Amino acid sequence: MNEKDILKGRAIWDALSVHRDPKKPITATAISKAIFPVAGYVRSRKVRDIIRDMTINGSCPLPVVGSGKGFYVSQDPELVQEYADNLYHLSIEIFNRRKGVLETACRCGVLSDGPEEQMEMVLL
Asked: How many angstroms separate the CA atoms of 89 and 6, rounded?
């Protein structure tokens, strides 16, 4: 991560960290506007990418929860566990959809390798 991305990540965290109410999340667009004076223009997609990366690499001091309405920080164990469970179930659905696409592609001749040869992901 370069120095600019670190600055953007800090600015995003500063904007995000005050949003702790699940009923009042902050959108990536609102974060983009809030950080403009500090970090310059950052596209909403890039804001979401940075939040994802910060969550994955553990650089967020508190858990970040995403919803269809935006992001918020939570210290509620039940809320965090429910969100983590939803992510797990979503990953299974995505994996199964991928498997179905590969099987169909092999069956109709779009791909020559079977889905077993295409497997790259292992779910824990």
From this structure: 31
Q: What is the dihedral of CA 86, 90, 9, 15, to 10 degrees?
A: -50
Predicted TM-score of the model (pTM): 0.79
CA separation for the pair 79, 75 (Å, rounded)? 8
CB environment 91-122: b (16+ within 10 A), e (fewer) = eeeeeeeeeeebeeebeeeebeeebeebeeee
> DSSP labels for 31-86?
HHHHHHHHH----HHHHHHHHHHHHHTT--SS-EEEETTEEEE---HHHHHHHHHH
Residue 75 has pLDDT above 50, yes or no: yes
Cα–Cα dist 84/103, whole Å: 29
- 80, exposed or middle or buried, with CB in 10 Å at 0-12, 13-18, 19+? middle
